Amino acid sequence: MRQELDHLDLRIIESLATYGPRNLANVARKLDMPPGTLRKRLKRLLSNIFLRFGINVYHTYLGLKKAVVFAEAIPGYEDLLFKSLKMNDFWLYVSRCYGMNEGCFAIYTIPKGHENDFEQFLEELQKIVAGNTQVFWSTCFQSVHCLCNWFDPKSGNWDFQWNKWLEEISAEGTELPYTLVDPEEWPIKGDEIDVFILKELEKDAAISFVDLAKKLKISPQLVGYHYQNHIKNHDLIENFSVDVYHFDISSSDRFFFIFRFNDRESLAKFASSMLDKPFVTVLGKILEENALLGYIYLPRSEFAKFIDTLAKLIGLGLLKSYQYMIQHLGKTSRQTISYEYFKDGSWVYDHKKHIENLHNLVKGTHQKYA
After folding, report:
1. What is the CATH number of the domain that holds 39?
2. CB 49 within 8 A of CB 245
3. Is the pTM for the entire model greater than 0.85?
């Protein structure tokens, strides 16, 4: 049975997400904790819970435009739809879901200039294997790693303060983090070595320069140069990421929400209020719309209260509407940035191959069960 997290565990995970796992001595200083104690605690955590540290790439500065897709499944073709969404090389995440557009949702990073090609891929998908399909072009995602808020260290329990959150929203500021501001351009600020390093850091943010050098067949010094002078100086890393189920996974669910607002001010206040809440995983903004995408993680016992709070926000005029779907945690796939398609400073996007892959998959599946 999973061991519950205590307040110190949450502080450690939150600090590792904030400062990164590459320098544990620095994290220990931030926590005012002996490095040996931190390492011992972290070792225990890694052996008792699912905990994975990576990075969030700032895809905008690699010329990649984020797309979130909701695809309705034709009954009986759910698994085929799931596989079909991965026939485009630039997928990042695909998951089965229930609720709005019951079927799948997927996240892609599409090279700038190929938006029409990608939408044609989705149109073809809808013709042969999917029902209604929607695509939302988004900013990069803002990760939220604030785990200690709403946790009572004395009782060791969570205290979901929905009424307090409701009061906070109208008092919030209207300045958004840069990740939730529509970009003016999508420049390519990295080279092939940078993209490869980013791919490896997505899998393990603590990987050493020595191990990276072996994979790249270059010197550790050159890896360090690219990390400091290219990746960090060009802001190719948005922040560190942490995957952890801080609520009991057996009685909690993940949801993907679309929140719509009457104006930018309401959007900004709502977004600002979410940046320190333990039920928020990531936020994104739909481009050119007053709408947010939110990845939410909540105990089932609190979900109705969350929905009630959203209804009150609509009544107050702070929220226009919302939609959501429930994620199927047992049916998900993820992959890193598609580094193998970055050549000579640009992305290779083979639209014809994506369409052929899609048709071959569907044709092969039909023949198998004919």
Report:
1. 1.10.10
2. yes
3. yes
